[in-house]
Amino acid sequence: MSDQPAKLLERSGVVAIAKPSGLATQAPPGIPSVEAWLRGLLPAGAYLGVPHRLDRAVSGVLLMATTPRAARQLSRQFERRQITKTYVAILAAGATTKLVAGETIEWRDRIAKRPDVAQARVVGADDPAGREAVTIARTLGEVAPGQWLVELAPVTGRMHQLRVQAAVRGMPVVGDTLYGGPALSCSPALGGGPAVEHIGPADTRQQPIALHALSIRFRDPDADEEVAVTAALPPHWPAAAAALLPAG
Q: What pTM was estimated for this model as a whole?
């Protein structure tokens, strides 16, 4: 993936887009976003629905709709949990965190948004603001000392769900300084270029993190058949991560 969005698939009013990290899904007028980029490719006044979102810092597959029917169908599939999303992340495992390659674990928590800030936290069962968050995590292997590639399949869709659940288990996403992750510095990189350096606290929203929406499966709104779309890892990710991805 580059630093610009790219179309991966377009059919039946659904557009699958490769979203780069650092770019918002939606933003106020005048601020770059995937929505503004796609709108610029459509005829003036054309319909554009946004039934799916990714955090600004996250890269990967994003679905948008260019017809009301497609938007309704996708929204219904998301609400009914009929869409399968698969992410991969590089997690920084502490000295006391023991991971085993090939192990599958269910993460189940209650998550609540922190008041007045764009951040979430895990809360107790008695907190009325908490909402259930469930993720299936599978360790794929170590990409560097203390850094593991993990496949994450969210069952629910809470704010910053994967980032919070990883952090509360003592293995935050690399680059995710909002939740205690170390600075992102991946080398050697897939694209052969320089490693991404940490930008600094003033730019944390645009700082890439090692969380990538690898693939998504949905039902075609017209043909009613399953469609699978995959987005390649960003070029600044370590080559060792690509080698650990499951085939297919």
A: 0.90
